[in-house]
Design goal:
By secondary structure, the chain is α+β, with helices and mostly antiparallel strands. It contains 2 helices and 3 strands, in the order E-H-E-H-E. Strands 1-3-2 form a 3-stranded antiparallel beta sheet. It comes from Pokkaliibacter plantistimulans.
Length: 80
């Protein structure tokens, strides 16, 4: 049996042009995974999850439409 932990990460990572090496996403994920591994969590997977935000009553009356966003979540697990 496993215990799971989900960690939301940003969909984009900002870097300065002169610091750009092309491996920023991998380096970012590596740091997050190693941080949780130090606490005993094993990396399991990364998922993209879509969330649709519905407008409130007043916004809907004024014609505002639902907004769709994508979020990324890293799943870690460890045995209980």
């Amino acid at each position: 049996m496993f215990e799971y932990k989900m960690v939301q990460i940003p969909p984009n990572i900002a870097v300065q042009m002169k610091a750009h090496r092309g491996n920023e996403a991998a380096a970012y994920l590596e740091n997050v995974v190693n941080e949780y591994a130090a606490d005993g969590w094993d990396f399991h997977r990364v998922d993209s999850i879509g969330v649709q935000v519905q407008p409130g009553c007043f916004d809907a009356l004024s014609g505002k439409k639902a907004e769709s966003n994508s979020y990324y979540v890293i799943t870690f697990r460890k045995e209980k």
